[in-house]
Design a protein that fits this description.
heterodimer; A: 324 residues; alpha/beta; Rossmann fold; 2 domains; five-stranded mixed sheet; 14 strands; B: Rossmann fold
Chain lengths: 324, 359
């Protein structure tokens, strides 16, 4: 069926809740309202209020209770309404979800998925445009996943729910209804920790994820007329990172560009640039480039385009690295 | 008795008076053997606590949080817990472990700095320690929500101190518990101090028990130096929780006789007179008087209990000290279910560098 990302994610939750009675959904406005973006629509009607739970407005305990449920044998999916509100739960995520396996020497595990809309480009209020994925990538014990297509969204969410470790599942708000794609009805997994080459090319490897994938793809189309054919890798899982796929590509193309909408300093691009430099600096034909958001607070609607990366800005970056 | 002692009126539940006399109206129906067991668990707790202090002073154990003075609230309440219940302890819960049957080796091992000490045996539903204050209360609520979903007749008990009641997670978790009517028992050990900060700087409320009322459920203040009162209140709260009656907050009114941790010096913030006043209400002495009154401590009983405790502790310390330190692999292996390639690479780098260091 042709589905957008919202529908694909909704289908994944319906399917897995049907199949596995341990799966529960909890969050603010997820039950009666079906979620502010309608991600959880229809779940309450089908699975009832004990498995689809509207919680009080308290992010820390929403996540903390989900941790308790996970330890007690359930497979909770906790929704944080916007990534800008996840900081209220950060102690639970960092101090407990990520560490309980280690602290208990493997007795207590946290098969928990924390889903949250993330990223800019939708003319939103303050705190509704965050992309602070790198915060979570530095935490041992967490997995961080970002889909860029409806097909991947469904398969990655199913793999995340079935994973025995906690997963921060970041859903690019801009891509929620950006387009439809053929998505199989059945339940399938897209494996975690595996990047995907979404455009084969030569001379340059562009690494991106989430909402920056279509931006990079459009940029690649722009530079085609200049005779440039960059390869594009969609990381899909940010932690643990599929370094192998990135490294093999860069060794072949000789150039690396990382595109992310998060601020530049200590963004995930810094880690990617560093490990490529460590492992393959002598195979590089040009300095590594990062095209990213600036180190500022994401502007409100009127100023958002200064911050948000356009295909043209990425295309200009591609031309620059190819000239050097 | 829950509901009959109004925290807003400052009413506190007590069974054993300071002279060891039980109030017949509330005296729980426990056999002589059970009463002797409670006493022996309290003696073991105190002896293990004092042993730990000695080990710490000798450099054989790291910083830890002594339980001195908490024997009645820990042992008394935990004695009411059944094996199907789940327990979420805080970092000052030696008597709870002793009562629930966690081998003492684990306690010493953990505070000696070995993660294996938190590798709780599978037959015990005891959660690991949460060091960030109060942050385990949401876990207890989530666990209780899972029990309710599965229609299990069991409860989740969380222990925490008076300082924890100022944390956001306390209010959030108790609010969830009230909204979802979860089978929870929240046991607040009010020992009057959070490190140096007295309860009056944590809250303007007269009692901590009354905070439950704002969340829509019952709270009761209990004499925390009275093991029988702690047992009776916890038992009733657990039965209520297991049978669908919802959560309860129990405030155990007690005193921390020792320092906050072995790194603390309590004389900086409290007077000898105050400590002396509480020493007079020692929970073990009170229970000893009660047993004597019931003719349950005749002959060599006292000596036997002390000797058994000492033997148990000597063996546990030896086991803990004989446990080898973790290998590099041990500290990596429980980060994820399967070790990602990055981590495997870092582990082999660590092993290589250790080889170099040892050359």
């Amino acid at each position: 069926m042709m589905l957008n990302m919202v529908q694909a994610l909704n289908q994944a939750m319906h399917g897995e809740m049907d199949k596995d009675p341990r799966v529960v959904v909890l969050g603010e406005d997820v039950a009666v309202d079906g979620g502010v973006f309608r991600l959880t629509e229809g779940l309450l009607e089908k699975f009832g209020p004990e498995r689809v739970i509207d919680t009080p407005l308290a992010e820390s305990t929403l996540v903390g209770a989900a941790i308790g449920m996970a330890v007690a044998g359930l497979r909770p999916i906790a929704e944080i309404q916007f990534m800008g509100f996840i900081y209220l739960a950060i102690n639970q995520i960092i101090s407990h979800a990520a560490r309980l396996r280690n602290r208990s020497r493997g007795r207590f595990t946290v098969p928990l998925v924390i889903r949250t809309p993330y990223g800019a480009g939708v003319r939103a209020l303050e705190h509704h445009s965050e992309s602070t994925e790198a915060l979570f990538c530095q935490i041992p014990g967490l997995k961080v996943v970002v889909p860029s297509t409806p097909y991947d969204a469904k398969g990655l969410l199913l793999a995340s729910i079935r994973d025995d470790d906690p997963v921060i599942f970041l859903e690019p708000t801009k891509l929620y209804r950006a387009g439809r794609q053929e998505v199989p009805d059945e339940l399938y997994e897209v494996p975690l920790g595996k990047a995907k080459t979404v455009r084969e090319g030569e001379g340059l490897t562009v690494v991106a994820w989430g909402a920056m994938i279509p931006v990079a793809q459009k940029a690649a189309e722009i530079v085609e007329k200049d005779g440039l054919f960059p390869e594009i890798i969609d990381l899909r899982t940010l932690a643990p990172l599929d370094r192998k796929t990135v490294l093999e590509s860069v060794k072949r193309t000789g150039r690396l560009m990382v595109v992310h909408e998060a601020p530049k300093t200590c963004g995930l691009g810094a880690e990617i640039a560093a490990f490529v430099a460590e492992k393959a600096i002598f195979q590089l034909e040009a300095p590594i480039i990062r095209i990213t958001g600036q180190d500022i607070t994401v502007p409100l609607a009127k100023g958002e385009d200064y911050y948000y990366l356009s295909p043209e800005r990425v295309a200009a970056g591609i031309k620059k690295i190819m000239e050097s | 008795m829950i509901g009959k002692f109004d925290p807003l009126k400052g009413e506190r539940f007590q069974v054993l008076g300071e002279n060891g006399q039980a109030n017949p109206e509330w005296e729980p129906k426990l056999s002589g053997t059970e009463l002797q067991k409670i006493y022996s668990l309290m003696v073991t707790t105190r002896a293990a606590d004092l042993k730990a202090l000695k080990l710490q002073r000798q450099g054989r154990m790291g910083t830890f949080a002594p339980s001195l003075g908490h024997e009645a609230c820990q042992v008394g309440s935990a004695f009411a817990i059944q094996t199907k219940d789940w327990v979420f302890p805080y970092f000052r819960d030696l008597g709870t472990y002793v009562t629930l049957g966690l081998p003492l080796k684990y306690y010493f091992l953990y505070w000696m700095g070995n993660e294996e000490g938190m590798h709780i045996p599978k037959d015990l539903n005891i959660f690991t320690i949460s060091v960030p204050v109060g942050s385990h209360l949401p876990h207890a609520v989530g666990c209780a929500m899972a029990m309710k979903l599965r229609k299990e007749a069991a409860a989740a008990i969380a222990y925490f101190g008076d300082g924890a009641t100022s944390e956001g997670d306390f209010s959030e978790a108790l609010n969830f518990a009230g909204v979802f009517q979860t089978p929870n028992v929240f046991i607040c050990i009010n020992n009057q101090y959070a490190i140096s900060t007295p309860v009056r700087r944590q809250t303007a409320a007269k009692t901590l028990a009354q905070k439950a009322l704002a969340f829509g459920f019952q709270g009761i203040q209990v004499d925390g130096n009275d093991a029988l009162a702690m047992y009776a209140a916890t038992k009733e709260a657990l039965e209520k929780a297991r049978s669908g009656g919802g959560p309860t907050l129990i405030e155990a009114f007690t005193y921390r006789m020792g320092n906050h941790t072995t790194s603390d010096d309590a004389s900086r913030y409290r007077t000898e007179a105050e400590v002396g006043e509480w020493a007079r209400r020692d929970p073990l002495e009170r229970f000893k008087l009660y047993l004597k009154d019931k003719n349950l401590s005749e002959g060599s009983f006292e000596d036997r209990v002390q000797k058994e405790a000492d033997e148990l502790i000597t063996k546990a310390v030896a086991e803990a000290e004989d446990t080898p330190p973790p290998s590099p692999g041990d500290i990596f292996v429980h980060t994820y279910k399967e070790m990602p390639p990055d981590l495997a690479e870092q582990l082999s780098e660590l092993r290589e560098s250790l080889k170099e260091e040892r050359k």
